[in-house]
Amino acid sequence: MGFCTDPDGSRVRMILDPTKYLKPVLDSPLFQNARWGSSERPTQYTDAVHRAQFFHQSDDDWHTMLRASVKTTRTMVLIRGTYRFAVDAKCNLVYVLVDEGVFVSELFPPTADDTSTVIGAAENAGDIRTRDLSTFLFSNTFLFEGDPSNCCALGFHSYDLEPGDASNGWQERRYVMNYASWISPGLFGGGFEDITALSHELSESFSDPFVNNATPIWVAPWGLCQNNLEDGDVVEGMPNATFPITMNGMTYYPQNEALLQWFAGQSPSSAYKHAYSFPDTTVLTSPAISYFPDCATPFNLAKKAP
Q1: Into how many domains does the chain fold?
Q2: Helix, strand, coil share of the chain (percent; to 5)
Q3: Does residue 127 carry a pLDDT above 90?
Q4: Torsion angles phi and psi, residue 142, rounded to 5
């Protein structure tokens, strides 16, 4: 992904390898049980978030749990000029900034039988299935749009759509996925490190797996304007966006998430502790206000033109 020069003048190929972060990710509250107020017993982060918003909807102790299964390691090779990078004094890669368009083209297959892209190879090898929630974990690999100064996307969730065949009755196949980067401490402020991006994308994959779960237009406290159930996007730009939790010998930084009641403009909230955010119920203290498409005029205060 980048090159340094050996003393003899030869170039050394450098790779950011996320495999060393597999164990801390698997030991994290994303896949291991921890104590959360929204559940009577210890549970995983995504389950706890989504139990919080449906806390009063059922008397049953229901759970939606993730069962991790590590698959084949795959390598994305990028052409020099499509990325920027930084190295330390020993010429180890610290991070890589990748052009988003290039990254997406190297991740998603152009055809169902493609094996040259990361997802295409995984699909054709049977490593990911339509009944899975598949994570493609990177290490300190962030995306920019157009220019490196327009940075950084730390992850996204989506799905790969492929045609069906006779074996499944010609029904389309949707491979729900997310790309997320492990974030080393010190690269970003606001407590954005380790599993922050992955927690964000997993929670949003639960809420909006096909990125089409529409809501009234909302404006986040930090200015972002959207109209979908992207619960991590609401909070990501706020100063208290993450929720430190210590377990298995490490402090992790999953992200706080907006709850369904915030998007619905519900007052009071029917969620756990009448909250609008979780795990930190104090991040959002009032529901969203609906806006017109200009993202500036509140729906309930707008005047009709004469």
Answers
A1: 1
A2: 20, 25, 55
A3: yes
A4: -125, 155
